[in-house]
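Exercise 7.
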Amino acid sequence: MRVLLTGGGTAGHINPALAIAETILRNAPGSTVEFVGVAGGKEDELVPRAGYKLHHVKSSALQGKKGLGRFASLALAATSPYLPSTVSIIKKFKPDIVIGTGGYACWPIMAAAARMGIPTALHESNAHPGLAVRRLQSKVDRIWINFPETAAAFGNSPKVICVGNPILQDFSTVDRGEARAKLGIAPDQKLILSFGGSNGAEKVNQAVIDIMKTTVANDKQIIHLHASGKINYEDTNKLFIEAGLDGAENCILRPYIYDMPLQMAAADLVIARAGAMTLSELALMKKACVLIPSPNVAENHQFKNAKALADAGAAILVEEKDLPSGELTAAVRELLASDARRREQETKIASFAREDAGQRIWQDIVSLTGK
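Solution. The predicted structure, written as tokens, is:
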């Protein structure tokens, strides 16, 4: 089978595509899988690192743009599926199916493939579909969703199937004890893992530095690993140094966490945004967590994601506007102090896991392609 996967901009769009690729190759080892993205996106880093070939198309985000910038993006969106550079990727590769996972990067190749009569499918991980997915819904053959309620956004079309979020196999196979041994974490130490998304989050970074300074640095029984995002790394590192944390061996700051399955497996507590892919990973790995939903997303969907878990006792929800008041620090201290509280969260968040998403997608790929 020959499969083109497209989507990007952030890890939230790329990771499900990588998980789908992994599932395809596990079920059909002789398959050829390649990716299509936009130059400068997170896909430039993550796709080659995973060992896949990456093609580039021209596309541009519309969100946040006004005036001439928005007009230029609209013009590119209208023409990009017809550009020779877009069409030639499809003609040369000859895919049996083209699969998109959202983000503006997926629009040109998906629209072109649908026009050329090639089987197409989209995966939408979030409760509220993104702009590219909404624009493509009438063109594609199938739409896979994570949340049952998302079907209403597509008019409850029969082409919509609820499958869950596909997760990389490492998230389900890595062992906690093995991970902690590999990372050199003692049995009596606690690991806090925190991140604000692949591009980072300034206010989350500031709050985490405060936790490191007031709660972690002087307690050698706690290790705290934080990913600031590459965009914010320089500014966050300055705060890190100003707080005197560069001399604290148990406080670790990185731009990005590439070995996330290993680190998450070892963690006792996770602080994160509330994107759908992150929540799926936390549920699969049964992790106690504090969620800080991004306020800068469509339909405030991260808050809705986080509230669903918090209402079920599966997470603690802290809004970004409440970070300066110390709510995050209080939540972290509460969970660190109570093994029973963390165990309770771990049990409850596990009920949100969907372990068969990848396999359900594979079965539908076979149905769509007849292969």
